[in-house]
Amino acid sequence: MMEEKQENCPFCSISQNEIIKETSLVIVKRDLYPVGKGHSLIIPKRHIASFFETTPAERKDLIDMLEIAKKSLQKDLNPDGFNIGINEGVIAGQTVMHLHIHLIPRYKGDMPDPRGGVRGVIPEKQKY
Fold first, then answer.
1. Inter-CA distances, 20 with 2, 30, 43, 51, 72, Å
2. Which of 39, 20, 37 is closest to 28 using CA atoms?
3. Which residues pair with 101 in a beta bridge?
4. In the CATH hierarchy, which fold is given to the domain comprising 16-123?
5. Where are the domains of the chain?
6. Measured in whole angstroms, how far is the alpha carbon of residue 5 from the centre of its chain?
7. What is the pLDDT along the chain (128 residues), one digit of tens a residue?
8. Is the whole-model pTM more than 0.85?
9. SS3 call for 44
10. 3-state class (DSSP) for residue 29
């Protein structure tokens, strides 16, 4: 399914039944290890590790699909907010070296104090 497949890459061997939406360049699927209900991944079909390796067309499709996925989740699950994130490199927590954007629906009460949001990747820096 994916162009320029990489052996042993879980995002290069996604089955068609996992795909929620797609373009010729990008797919949307649910995360297999979700942080919360509806946690989705927006993934380029071409095997690249970094957002900064995307072509202008891939970047446009990634952002367009992020918006489409958000609207779909809003309609289906009615979350109260979203976190959007990319782990760029091993030091930033990237464990699958195939670019993917996390779209994580957030719900009131899913954690006691969500202030600081994505700053929580370094817990002692989250509250300020």
1. 15, 8, 11, 21, 10
2. 20
3. 42
4. HIT family, subunit A (3.30.428)
5. 16-123
6. 19
7. 345 678 899 999 999 999 999 999 999 999 999 999 999 999 999 999 999 999 999 999 999 999 999 999 999 999 999 999 999 999 999 999 999 999 999 999 999 989 888 888 888 888 77
8. yes
9. strand
10. strand
d(CA 48, CA 12): 10
Q: Which two tokens stand for residue 36?
A: 């919360």
End-to-end CA distance of the chain: 45
Read off the amino acid at residue 120: G
100 part of the active site: yes
Catalytic residue among 47, 98, 100, 102: 100
Helix (H, G, I), strand (E, B) or coil at 17: helix
